[in-house]
Design brief:
By secondary structure, the protein is an alpha/beta fold. It has 13 helices and 9 strands. It has helices at about 40-50, 80-90, 105-115, 135, 145-150, 150-155, 160-165, 170-180, 185-195, 200-215, 225-230, 280, 285-295, and strands at about 5-10, 10-20, 25-30, 55, 65, 95-100, 120-125, 240-245, 265-270. Strands 1, 2, 3, 4, 5, 6, 7, 8 and 9 form a 9-stranded mixed β-sheet that branches. α1 (about 40-50) crosses α13 and α2 (about 80-90) packs across α3 (about 105-115).
Length: about 300
């Protein structure tokens, strides 16, 4: 994962890892917040050994990914992140790929599968169907569920933006611990990923992402049509496997709540052994197996 390449794709100069044989089946892996490409360090090894070409980009606002223009709005809405993924496939001249992700990356993978099924040979999504809308984000939840989203409400304030900017590493480590309460990661593992949060656009992207979800920040008009389609909660027709850890401490839906959103070949797997939110890094064999299995379903 040390060999990070750069390529211009859409609005970005994307930092990404491209590992494995160039003619192998393509796999695009998308990370979440507050994580980075190293969530897939062991998954990449397993998949390349199996003959796959594996692409792992830094999302906008992370690592070495940069906006091409200082004038571009630092937009974290879901449609923008999905368009980034398509732009990367276009820039690399990849017609279709298996797409996998967790957290923000799972949402983006879901969107690519739902809106661009011709670009997605199969889907692996941790925590299932995560496509949302601003309308859904305005609906109140039961108190215990609201408590799990404390950081989202913190980010809605200027104090929260300033606090995250000042304490981004301490903040991220707290999320790692609460989201994966049984994962005994060491400082070196955390620090390797935390370096990605030094990206100059990181705070702006994170804050906009969460404020947009609550309807407290506007998106951009160029994504409005995509967001309208996503607000209808489109079905996912490509072969899909959803995963969940048995010790996920982050907010996540019950698998029964989204099973009917997958209308193609579909299965759900629960990964046991104290596996938390960062499933690809905590259980790389289970994630890689799902990628290879969903690829075999096409």
């Amino acid at each position: 994962m040390d060999n990070v390449e750069q390529i211009e794709a859409g609005l970005l100069n994307v930092g990404y890892v491209d590992a494995g044989p160039a003619d192998g089946p393509a796999v695009l892996l998308l990370h979440g917040w507050p994580y980075d490409i190293h969530s897939y360090v062991d998954v990449v090894s397993l998949l390349t050994t199996a003959g796959c070409r594996v692409l792992v980009p830094h999302l906008r606002g992370y690592g070495t990914t940069r906006f091409l223009s200082d004038e571009t709005f630092r937009n974290g809405e879901q449609a923008a992140l999905a368009v980034d993924a398509i732009a990367l496939l276009d820039a690399l001249e990849i017609e279709s790929a298996i797409v996998g992700g967790f957290d923000w990356g799972a949402r983006t993978a879901d969107i690519v599968a739902a809106l661009w099924p011709e670009r997605c040979r199969g889907l692996v999504s941790v925590s299932g169907y995560l496509i949302g809308s601003q309308a859904a984000g305005k609906l109140p939840l039961p108190p215990e569920a609201e408590l799990q989203w404390w950081y989202q409400y913190y980010f809605a304030t200027e104090r929260g933006r300033a606090g995250y900017d000042t304490h981004r590493r301490d903040f991220a480590k707290l999320i790692w611990r609460t989201a994966s309460p049984k994962w005994s990661f060491d400082d070196a593992t955390f620090d390797r990923s935390a370096a990605s949060f030094d990206n100059p656009d990181h705070v702006a992207i994170v804050i906009h992402n969460y404020r947009w979800r609550l309807g407290l920040a506007e998106g951009e008009a160029e994504y409005d049509e995509l967001e309208k389609r996503l607000a209808e909660a489109p079905a996912i027709t490509v072969p899909a496997i959803t995963l969940e850890g048995d010790a996920n401490g982050a907010p996540h839906p019950d698998p029964s709540a989204y099973a009917d959103k997958f209308t193609g070949k579909y299965s759900h797997r629960t990964t046991e052994g104290g596996i938390g939110h960062n499933l690809p890094q905590e259980a790389p064999e289970a994630f890689a197996e799902a990628v290879l299995d969903v690829g075999g379903a096409t």
